[in-house]
Amino acid sequence: MKKDYDKFINDFQTKLDKYFEEYSEYIYCHENCSGCCETGEYPFSQLEMAYLMKGFLKLPQDIKDIIKNNIENLKKQKSDFNGERFEYTCPFLIEKKCSVYQNRGITCRVHGLAYLRKNNTVNLPHCANIGLNFSTVFKDGIFSIEPIKENLNIDEVLKNFKDEMGEIRPLINWFL
Ligand code: SF4
């Protein structure tokens, strides 16, 4: 992994912290909420996955075992799944906390924000539909404030790491 990914991700996080601050009146994230990690696909590039696993390797053995068990269970569930989009609780979520928080991916870091995508549509957090983030400014399909005017999708965020980024897959698919 390129050495400066650590620096890049720290700088990116600083930028995101500013966005969270700027939009704080619309954000209801709080310590015991892990909704963003309970239902999703969690796309990760190969580069981010390698970074995540660096965090995993530093964990105590008992936590590693829980995660491995979660992954094995998910693999079984996925093999029995016949639908189009397999959504699941992230195997790294333990007691409503991310066990690899410092090494989490870009999708994880932008959870909860509203930003403009490539096609000029707004990417909203799921919880906008259940009375949480941005729900006060999202009614009948209309978003009534200016979202972050930066595309925070992985491929755009990692455009300077194009050669190292690799494929993007749902997190569980990296273990199949
Ligand atoms: S890696 Fe951590 S932050 Fe990302 S989805 Fe999993 S539990 Fe949530």
Question: How much helix is in the residues?
Answer: 25-40%
Give me the Rg, rounded: 17 Å
Write out the strand line-up for the largest beta sheet, numbering strands in chain order.
1-8
What small molecules does this complex bind? iron/sulfur cluster
How far do the termini sit from each other? 22 Å
The count of domains is: 1
Helix and strand content put the structural class at alpha+beta
Q: What kind of oligomer do you see?
A: single chain
In words, what does this structure look like?
The protein is an alpha+beta fold and 176 residues long. It is built from six helices and eight strands, in the order H-E-H-H-E-E-H-E-E-E-E-H-H-E. A hairpin with a 2-residue loop joins strand 6 and strand 7 (142-143). The chain has a two-stranded antiparallel sheet with strand order 1-8. Strands 2-3 form a two-stranded antiparallel ribbon. The chain starts with a helix and ends in a 6-residue tail after the last strand. It is 36% helix and 10% strand. The model has no long low-confidence stretch (mean pLDDT 95). The protein has one domain (5-175). Iron/sulfur cluster binds next to loops.
